[in-house]
Structures are given as structure tokens and as C-alpha cells.
TrEMBL record:
It comes from Georgenia satyanarayanai. InterPro entries: Erg6_SMT_methyltransf, Methyltransf_11, SAM-dependent_MTases_sf. This is Methyltransferase domain-containing protein. It holds the Pfam family Methyltransf_11. Keywords: Methyltransferase, Transferase. The keyword Transferase applies. PANTHER family: HYPOTHETICAL LOC100005854 (PTHR44068:SF1), ZGC:194242 (PTHR44068). Residues 70-164 form the Methyltransferase type domain. One of its GO terms (molecular function) is sterol 24-C-methyltransferase activity. One of its GO terms (biological process) is methylation.
Length: 260
């Protein structure tokens, strides 16, 4: 039921909000350490800086140049497009369950080596050992089974390949996610709580998010979409501020030899 509900929402968003300018749907990331370098972006990408910085943070520890990258849960394609245009991979494949989202991506997101495929995160439509890196940003909370997702990622990753993940959960659910990641078939290299960075990004990006809601979402639907977008004053934003919602990033690796 969870997967069906999220699928219905994203199908509606892809079909009804067809404007290509709405590129990203994540909550963003703002560096809090003054020594942390922000990515240099083309002027056309500057409006999406906070959302792009989340991808930059997630993939920052892994060299993507010349690799085959899969983004699971690519949504409207902004992240896959950013990786293809800025990080120098050989290929980037975005996969999403939503037909309308994939149709939008194929119409509007173009870069060398970039392609989009409709597919289920729990039954990925790719052969074994097809990718060097799997990216999963703000998507796993939609899945009925994170364990099944991790098994599929392990299957499609080449030995030594990385899963780069970021997502949100309630406080108790985040503890469960951390346990699931540690017990899964991939080796956890790093896990970070980035709730403060996400909160800062939401607040810095609040005016832009509200302008997008005003421009693209009919007024009767503003309240639920304010929660969805986590704008200031929404219950979602309040839960982040109170520490009831947590946001984490993680890097996991498929071992080059089978686990004992």
C-alpha cells in the first residue's frame, strides 16, 4: 500500500506538473562547515543549488569519472542530469517507478551517456553486475522493503561498487534503517546524520519553494504540498526542527569477495 500511494502521487505530479523547470524534489543540503567547498555551478543551475548540493554531498567521496552510474528513484531527472553533466561518468541511467516521471525525463533531460528507464527499485530491470555506483536520494522511504532493495543493489553492483544513499525517517525509523543497512549484503563505510544541513537548506530555499507552489500547485492543494515540500511553518519542517525527523547519508560498498 505504501508503494502504491507514493506511486500515485508521483504519477500525478509527473502528469499534471509538466514544466521542465521543476527539476528536483529533494530537501537540499547546506554546508555548515566553512571549510566545506560548495560546487561551482553554471548560472542555469543556480536556482537548484540547495538540491544539487545534496547530490554533491552524497557522491562526494566517490570518483565517478568513467563509471557506469545508476540512480534509483530518479524522479524528475535533475539529479541524474547533474551527475551526467558535472561528474564525468561514462553513463548515467535513471530509473523510476512512475511512467509520467520517466516520460518527462526523456523529454527534457539530455546529456552525453544519460538515459532513463521505468522500473521497480525492488526488481531492477538490469543484468547482474551492470553498474559501478548506485545513487539513491530521498527515495527509500517509499519502498515496502529496504531489505529487498539492498539485495537488488548488491546484485546490479560490480564488486567494489558503491551505494550512495540519503534519506529521511522518523527518529525510531532512522534507528531501524541504520540497523537494516548494517545487516544487509553491503558493507557500511560511512553513515552521517545531516539533519542540521537539511534544515538549513530548507530555510535558505524557502522563498523559492513557496514561489514554485504558488506557480504550479492549485491553491486548494497548497496545505498538503506545503507539508510535502517541508516549507517553514509546515508540520514536516517542525518535526525536523524538533529532532523528531532525522536525515542521514550513507556510503556502502559491495565487497570484492563474498562475505563469510
Amino acid at each position: 500500500m505504501r508503494q502504491l500511494g507514493w506511486r500515485a502521487l508521483y504519477e500525478v505530479l509527473g502528469a499534471r506538473v509538466r514544466r521542465p523547470e521543476w527539476t528536483f524534489m529533494n530537501y537540499g543540503y547546506a554546508p555548515l562547515d566553512p571549510d566545506e567547498e560548495a560546487p561551482v555551478l553554471e548560472p542555469a543551475d543556480e536556482p537548484d543549488r540547495m538540491c544539487i548540493q545534496l547530490y554533491d554531498h552524497v557522491v562526494g567521496a566517490v570518483e565517478l569519472r568513467g563509471t557506469d552510474v545508476l540512480e534509483v528513484g530518479c524522479g524528475r531527472g535533475g539529479g541524474s542530469s547533474y551527475l551526467a553533466r558535472y561528474r564525468g561518468p561514462a553513463t548515467v541511467t535513471g530509473v523510476d517507478l512512475s511512467r509520467s516521471a520517466i516520460a518527462l525525463c526523456r523529454r527534457h533531460r539530455h546529456a552525453p551517456g544519460l538515459s532513463f528507464v521505468r522500473g521497480d527499485a525492488l526488481d531492477l530491470p538490469f543484468p547482474d553486475e551492470s553498474f559501478d555506483v548506485v545513487v539513491n536520494v530521498e527515495s527509500s522511504h517509499c519502498y515496502p522493503s529496504v531489505e529487498a532493495f539492498l539485495r537488488e543493489v548488491h546484485r546490479v553492483l560490480r564488486p567494489g561498487g558503491s551505494l550512495l544513499l540519503a534519506d529521511l525517517r522518523g527518529q525510531e525509523e532512522m534507528s531501524e534503517l541504520r540497523g537494516t543497512l548494517r545487516e544487509g549484503p553491503l558493507e557500511v563505510v560511512e553513515m552521517r546524520d545531516i539533519t542540521a544541513n537539511v534544515c538549513a537548506a530548507l530555510e535558505l530555499d524557502d522563498d523559492r519553494r513557496r514561489a514554485l507552489l504558488d506557480a504550479w500547485i492549485p491553491r486548494p492543494f497548497h496545505r498538503p504540498f506545503e507539508r510535502f515540500a517541508a516549507v517553514e511553518g509546515s508540520s514536516t519542517h517542525a518535526r525536523f526542527k524538533a529532532g523528531e525527523n532525522r536525515y542521514a547519508s550513507a556510503r556502502l560498498v559491495r565487497a570484492t569477495t563474498a562475505r563469510a
